[in-house]
Amino acid sequence: MLLAIDVGNTNIKLGLYDGAERVVVWRLSTQGHKLMDEYAVLVRNLFELRGYDMAVVEGCAIACVVPPLTDVFVELARQYLKVEPVVVGPGVKTGLRLTIDTPRELGADRVAHAVAAYQRYGAPVIVIEFGTATVFDVIARGGDYIGGVIAPNIVISAEALGKAAAKLYQVEVVRPQRVIGKNTVQYMQSGIVFGYAGLVEGLVHRIWDELGERATVVATGGLSRLIMDALAADDKVIDHVADHLVLEGLRLIYELNQG
Question: How far apart are CA 120 and CA 97, in angstroms?
Fold first, then answer.
């Protein structure tokens, strides 16, 4: 089996694959101060809770955007899983050409979800990941990764609004029934959710204009369905919502780098 590990700024996701089938996904909170042995205990316990032994792992692929944790999980793979992991980064085959100014600065998670989207939906394709930041990644025809966009996360934006204004406060980030609110909570929810949907719509249309054609748009991340539901009824710019796209990309990258 293959263990795919996506180390993000907020969460760590682990996906166990039997061939192309994802059999289980686990989530941990990202804690940069934890040691390799501490994470190994957590991973072992997760395996045991689902009735697996860590010895079933025959391969490992890692995407990490928290530099101090890269070595932690590489050593975990070597010492506890007894495998040499494929770590997404320079020198690793992805099937994409990175035609950007600073390819070494591109997050490993963005590379992985771009690979998965390209393989699943073809090109041109835009991936929107609603994570700690909201990122747009653009893959042109032929598999060229040509660039993207980074925008603030919707939840972070909502928290900042509540903290910065003396008479405003934290509200639940949910879609209100109407754009025109009737009270402060509704005012804020409308601006946050529908305003963010407008950001997504505007950026996608601008990307389409620069590409000169309509690209397939794939959303991933926990808030994907919230934003998709808030899009204008006559302008649904998101075509697909795909869960665990980074893990799927890690599986594909691992397979590409065997042999």
Answer: 17
Q: Quick one: which of 24, 50, 52, 54 has its CA closest to 39?
A: 54
> Which CATH number describes the domain made up of 97-248?
3.30.420.40
> What's the angle, vertex CA 250, arms to CA 247 and CA 252, rounded to 5?
115
CATH topology identical between 2-87 and 97-248: yes
pLDDT 10s digits, 84-138: 999 999 999 999 999 999 999 999 999 999 999 999 999 999 999 998 899 999 9
Nearest CA-CA partner of 150 in 118, 193, 105:
105
CATH number assigned to the domain covering 2-87:
3.30.420.40
50-56 contact pairs (CB < 8 A, 24+): 50/24, 52/16, 52/24, 54/80, 54/81, 55/82, 56/1
Task: Write out the catalytic residue numbers.
Answer: 109
C-alpha span between 126 and 129 (Å, rounded): 10
Q: What tens digit of pLDDT does each residue of 163-200 get?
A: 777 667 788 889 999 999 999 999 999 999 999 999 99
Report the first-to-last Cα separation within the chain, whole angstroms: 17
Q: What is the pLDDT of residues 54-73, one digit of tens each?
A: 999 999 999 999 999 999 99
pLDDT the model gives residue 167 = 63
Write down the mean pLDDT value for the chain.
94
Can you list the alpha helix ranges (DSSP code H) found in the chain? 36-49, 67-76, 108-121, 154-164, 184-189, 195-211, 224-230, 245-256
pLDDT for 238 beyond 90: yes
**What are the structure tokens assigned to 142, written together?**
């032929």
Residue 165: both structure tokens together: 């204004």
- What does the chain come to in residues? 259
